[in-house]
Amino acid sequence: MSYTPGVGGDPAQLAQRISSNIQKITQCYSIEANVENAEVHVQQANQQLSRAADYQRKSRKTLCIIILILVIGVAIISLIIWGLNH
């Protein structure tokens, strides 16, 4: 294939433009892949936050039950001690 001036431009420039366009396309695919990965990570983070909130709610409930049992226990022991002294 021979170079004909005025038809299609300089082959080196054409090759450079093609290479530049390929790099831009590759970069777009890379950006798209990163956005998709970020979306997956955000979804996973939301699931983990939801689970963490559930665990926190359950642990608060458990702590309240333990405190209530301790208060009742202290009250019973106090009544027993008070009853023995009177």
From TrEMBL:
Protein origin, superkingdom: Eukaryota
Membrane spanning stretches: 63-84
Listed Gene3D superfamilies: 1.20.5.110
Entry keyword annotation includes Coiled coil: yes
The T-SNARE coiled-coil homology domain, residue ranges: 30-77
SUPFAM superfamilies: SNARE fusion complex
UniProtKB keywords: Coiled coil, Membrane, Transmembrane, Transmembrane helix
Listed name of the protein: cDNA FLJ50258, weakly similar to Syntaxin-7
Gene source species: Homo sapiens (Human)
